[in-house]
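Re: weekly structure request thread

Next one in the queue (165 aa):
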Amino acid sequence: MEVFKAVKGYQGYYEISNLGRVRSVGRTIKKIYGYWYIKERILKQNTGKYGFKYVVLSKNNLKKKYSIHTLIAESFFGSAGVGGSAGRTEMAEVGQSKKIYNGKPMSSKYKGVSRHTTSKKWCAYIRINGKLKYLGSFNDEKSAYKKYQNELKAYKIKKSIQKES
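Done, posted below.
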């Protein structure tokens, strides 16, 4: 079930859902020439150069870009966290930002490893040429990290072979 909460700093203007959808709140604005009604609608999401989704929010004629995972973290958890990078599984796993969900850490101390919200397993991911590749889910984070390291080594070997050719 989708739950919307107000975006911090934009209460009455925008709301974000636990699924990552951002909507503008329907409202009436007084202008010099009369009143202007803004319909409630879901905002279009853009993809940044590192693959993260973002939206542009506007208030008092000032526009600013916000990444979806940051908005979710601030609205649902109270802060954007430490890392600020995004995971791809669910709202509680907003990247490797040292979040805690039901008393258990959602991110790992290892790069490329995070904990899946529903299955409670450790997932390994690697980003190659801007694309996120899922490497699998594991019962412990060390196994997930080993898979990440093996994939990284294989990519580096493949890249060095291509350079020699």
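The first strand starts at residue 4 and ends at 6. Residues 1-80 form a domain with the Homing Intron 3 (I-Ppo) Encoded Endonuclease; Chain A fold (CATH 3.90.75.20).
Next request, please.
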